[in-house]
Amino acid sequence: MGVGAGDPELITLKALKIIEKCKIVAGWQSVVSRFNLSGKEVVYLNYKDQDRQIPDLVKRAREQDVAILDHGDPSVSDFQFVGRIRESCRQFDVKYEVVPGISSVLRALALVEKDLSQVVFMTFHIRGELDYTEIDKSIALGRDLLIIPEPYSYGVKKIAERLVGLGLNPEMVVMERLSFSDEKVNHFMAKEILDMDLKFSDMSIVYVKLS
Asked: Which Gene3D superfamilies does this entry report, sorted A to Z (predicted)?
């Protein structure tokens, strides 16, 4: 279930009702800690143990309602996480619903004054081997790029490296912790990011201006 970006007012009424109803609430600590869950059983997920935790939660959902919370909208950039939940639900024959939320991608589009149809959206916020040549293919489409970097301090720099390696030096708008109280928006040229010792939030979105 998506619980919106950082601003607590961006959660949907449906999500609030589900949280209130469920006795078991699970999710990454950074997500779950945003809510008052007194009186509920809280399960903090972690990357190391999620392959065990998710099936355990799904099996418990046979007897009790379980809510698994996720930042923003789970279908925007957490498709691998949602896929594991779906797979477990099918394996144990448990009914499930993916409840959409308000993604920080929407906040990013508002800030750069673009519509989703005007950009190519990409995410590197995934587990496994990453293929940065996907940037090359997206550039060929002739639209600006909206990219979720790898969730590390060097994620933005990896994008800049690819762009400069292609002989480009576009403007990059780096948006960090969108809709949180400490939201930051900064404009750089790609080469500037490579030349400066910058570390960015693991919750960033990058707009690459190519047009």
From this structure: Cobalt-precorrin-4 Transmethylase, Domain 1, Methyltransferase, Cobalt-precorrin-4 Transmethylase, Domain 2
- The answer to whether 135 touches 122, Cβ cutoff 8 Å, is yes
pLDDT given for residue 73 in this prediction? 93
Kindly report the pTM of this predicted structure.
0.90
Q: Pick from 161, 108, 175, 172: which is nearest to 133 by CA? A: 161
Whether residue 174 contacts residue 206, with contact meaning beta carbons closer than 8 Å, is answered with yes
* Distance (Å, whole) CA 149 – CA 48: 21
Amino acid at 174: V
Successive 10-residue mean pLDDT values, the chain, 211 residues: 92 95 95 93 94 96 96 87 95 96 96 97 89 95 96 95 98 97 97 94 96 88
Nearest to 177 by CA among 1, 5, 3, 4: 5
Helix, strand and coil content of the chain, in percent to the nearest 5, comes to 40, 20, 40
DSSP-derived 3-state class of residue 25: strand
Helix (H) or strand (E) holding 19: helix 13-21
Q: Are strands 184-189 and 66-69 parallel, antiparallel or unpaired?
A: unpaired
What contacts 72, CB < 8 A, 6 or more positions away?
A: 2, 3, 4, 5, 78, 101, 102, 103, 104, 105
